[in-house]
Task: inverse folding
């Protein structure tokens, strides 16, 4: 959704001539006066000052999506590569070991075969190391591919690059939008996904019915933490570029959403 809206804004903004004014400030062109903010320019200065047009709904939607999706994307990418991938590899190794452990002498005797033959049978005629290597290969194939790199890695990289190259002002009080998004996700997990599927989307989060609550609270806090990271990066970007922060939705200019402007 974010990349679609951002691309639409870029395409709509390309035909416009560049505007050098910063974030909705009135810009002095030739008289060296300080930039003015809001209202009409001084008498006789109409030729020297101009104001960025107020951002439209699509531009404001891009800002909102950027503020919500940067924390969510970074958090999800970290969960995938630091939790789900190791968990998947451990599960692959454990599956072979569990299958081999099921071949007790009693089970082998019931089938009138040796324990070694029983192990080879349950491991589909493979040794334990061979089985683990095959299971690891299958588990890695799920994650180590370009599709996963794009949706669980490069998406965060692209959005962070976008944040550094545009002039979108991340608002501290918009942290509530990120909180609402995380809360909606928790409600979806608890009251829609789990009742329908009978299991949690991420099994590592389920340690008992009551323990789901601190997991969900932690999820919310992590969203807010990474929102703070995005806010800090936007402030650092503005400081390095000498851009003044603005204070309201109406100060988001259309050209701020187009890298070329």
Result:
């Amino acid at each position: 959704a974010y990349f679609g809206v951002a691309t639409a804004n870029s395409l709509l903004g390309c035909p416009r001539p560049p505007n050098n004014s910063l974030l909705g400030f009135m810009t002095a062109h030739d008289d060296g006066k300080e930039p003015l903010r809001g209202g009409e320019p001084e008498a006789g200065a109409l030729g020297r000052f101009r104001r960025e047009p107020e951002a439209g709904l699509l531009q404001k939607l891009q800002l909102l999506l950027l503020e919500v999706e940067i924390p969510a994307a970074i958090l999800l990418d970290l969960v995938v590569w630091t939790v789900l991938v190791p968990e998947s590899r451990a599960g692959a190794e454990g599956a072979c070991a569990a299958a081999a452990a099921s071949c007790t002498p009693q089970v082998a005797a019931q089938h009138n075969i040796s324990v070694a033959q029983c192990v080879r049978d349950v491991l589909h005629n493979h040794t334990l190391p061979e089985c683990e290597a095959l299971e690891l290969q299958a588990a890695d194939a799920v994650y180590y591919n370009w599709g996963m790199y794009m949706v669980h890695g490069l998406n965060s990289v692209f959005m962070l690059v976008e944040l550094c190259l545009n002039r979108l002002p991340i608002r501290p009080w918009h942290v509530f939008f990120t909180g609402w998004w995380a809360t909606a996700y928790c409600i979806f997990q608890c009251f829609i996904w789990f009742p329908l599927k009978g299991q949690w989307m991420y099994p590592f989060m389920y340690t008992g019915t009551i323990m789901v609550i601190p997991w969900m609270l932690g999820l919310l806090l992590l969203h807010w933490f990474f929102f703070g990271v995005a806010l800090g990066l936007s402030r650092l970007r503005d400081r390095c570029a000498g851009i003044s922060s603005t204070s309201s939705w109406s100060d988001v200019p259309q050209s701020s959403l187009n890298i070329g402007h």
